[in-house]
């Protein structure tokens, strides 16, 4: 099976550009296998990925049950302490009971009602950005529409002053560099500096902000520490910047590659809600999430031992023919659509309702402002795989 290991290569530009043929072979022939180069157990079938996301024998962290040494892992370098203290103050990389408490407290401020209340403002911002692109005759859809929308929405939602907003996107990208496989030393040191600067900015805001914004609302939640408030805000910003931006770019690139479906959407904007779900399934912007095995588990007849790291392939699960009819086809009216683009279980994406609104409003605005939008050059994929997206998306109207 060495050829399969060769084909599963998250560092390869060819694999990043099109991982789906390799996924199809793995699902069929070797749905669970240990990958030597990454040191991870790779899981590719929807049934297994979905079950493991809900299995409490796995966790985003193991530090609540074991030391690094007990898990056969090296101690974390001292210089990374600012990064890890920031990340572990949020809910993404912690487990119950801390995760349960944090999610409950944050949910008091980040409510579905509050998110739905942002729709009018999101529609206004998306409309302005799309019209600007159309008036200029085109440009880079990523830089001019996909990026500014979620960045502006989350900055306004948190109450971050306009003067600080240009720093948000670089900070976010630099911190998220740590989530790639084996980041280089300079990437790690850049992430640490961004963590320190971002934290300092948010601490200052938390202590002085007033008014109707999420930082003020979080600061008022009893039981949420300042560290946890900062970690939560960074998590929301990073998810909004990286995943939502990539989701928008990946969606439009998929539409341009499937002109029959783009024509359907142009003829019927009522398809947008199911289109958003199908586009998240078709080219998942966060194609892989990792978990640590806290107790021995058996997956598809394969024993995966305690202490192992599992690479759950969301993008593969979302193309599994056992769950999706004709999974390689883009069908904007696909229903039901049990994709796991937002995860599952206790770590299901807290920002999913906001992401869905932003994706739908952005798509609607571009379709209205530039109904004949065309691609001018084939885009290139960024080198990272954990957060998979395009470098740019050049278009004309």
Task: Give a quick precis of the structure.
The protein is of the alpha+beta class.
Task: Please describe what this structure looks like.
The chain has a single domain, classed as Orthogonal Bundle (Cytochrome p450). Helices cover 50% and strands 9% of the residues. The chain is built from 18 helices and 10 strands. It has helices spanning 2-7, 13-17, 20-29, 46-53, 81-87, 98-109, 112-116, 119-135, 141-146, 148-158, 168-176, 185-208, 214-219, 226-257, 259-267, 272-282, 314-317, 352-369, and strands at residues 32-35, 40-43, 58-59, 138-140, 288-293, 297-299, 302-304, 309-313, 374-375, 394-396.
Any descriptors?
alpha+beta; about 400 residues; single chain; three-stranded antiparallel sheet; 18 helices; Cytochrome p450; about 10% strand; about 50% helix; globular; five-stranded mixed sheet
What would CATH call the homologous superfamily?
Cytochrome P450
What is the radius of gyration? Answer: 21 Å
Outline: globular
Summing up helix and strand content along with how strands pair, one would put the structural category as alpha+beta
Give the SSE string: HHHEEHEHHHHEHHHHHHHHEEEEHHEE
Strand content: 5-15%
Main sheet record: 5 strands, mixed
| N-to-C CA distance | 48 Å
CATH topology: Cytochrome p450
What do the pLDDT scores average to?
94
Share of helical residues: 40-55%
Tell me the CATH architecture: Orthogonal Bundle
Strand segment count: 10
The strand order across the widest sheet is 1-2-8-5-3
User: Class in CATH?
Assistant: Mainly Alpha
- List low-confidence stretches: none
């Amino acid at each position: 099976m060495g050829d399969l290991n060769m084909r599963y290569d998250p560092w390869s530009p060819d694999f990043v550009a099109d991982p789906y043929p390799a996924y199809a072979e793995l699902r069929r022939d070797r749905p669970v296998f240990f990958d030597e180069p990454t040191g991870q157990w790779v899981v590719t079938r929807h049934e297994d990925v979905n079950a493991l996301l809900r299995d409490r024998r796995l966790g985003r962290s193991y530090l609540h049950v074991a030391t690094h040494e007990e898990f056969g892992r090296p101690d974390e370098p001292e210089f990374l302490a600012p990064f890890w203290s920031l990340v572990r103050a949020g809910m993404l990389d912690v487990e119950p009971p801390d995760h349960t408490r944090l999610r409950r407290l944050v949910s008091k401020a980040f409510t579905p009602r509050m998110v739905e209340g942002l729709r009018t403002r999101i529609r206004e911002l998306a409309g302005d950005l799309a019209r600007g692109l159309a008036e200029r005759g085109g440009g880079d859809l990523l830089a001019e529409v996909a990026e500014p929308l979620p960045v502006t929405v989350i900055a306004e939602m948190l109450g971050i002053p306009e003067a600080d907003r240009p720093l948000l996107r670089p900070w976010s990208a630099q911190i998220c560099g740590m989530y790639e496989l084996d980041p280089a030393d300079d990437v790690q040191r850049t992430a640490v500096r961004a963590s320190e600067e971002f934290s300092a900015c948010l601490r200052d805001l938390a202590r002085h902000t007033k008014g109707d914004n999420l930082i003020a609302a979080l600061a008022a939640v009893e039981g949420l520490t300042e560290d946890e408030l900062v970690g939560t805000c960074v998590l929301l910003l990073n998810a909004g910047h990286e995943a939502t931006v990539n989701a928008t770019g990946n969606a439009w690139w998929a539409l341009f590659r499937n002109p029959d479906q783009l024509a359907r959407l142009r003829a019927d904007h009522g398809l947008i809600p199911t289109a958003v779900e199908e586009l998240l399934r078709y080219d998942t912007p966060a194609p892989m999430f990792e978990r640590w095995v806290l107790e021995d588990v058996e997956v598809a007849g394969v024993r995966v031992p305690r202490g192992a790291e599992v690479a759950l392939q969301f993008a593969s699960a979302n193309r599994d023919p056992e769950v999706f009819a004709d999974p390689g086809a883009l069908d904007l009216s696909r229903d039901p659509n049990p994709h796991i683009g937002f995860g599952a279980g206790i770590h299901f994406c807290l920002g999913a309702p906001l992401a869905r609104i932003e994706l739908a409003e952005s798509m609607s605005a571009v379709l209205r402002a530039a109904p004949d939008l065309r691609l001018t050059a084939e885009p290139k994929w960024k080198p990272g795989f954990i957060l998979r997206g395009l470098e740019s998306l050049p278009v004309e109207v």
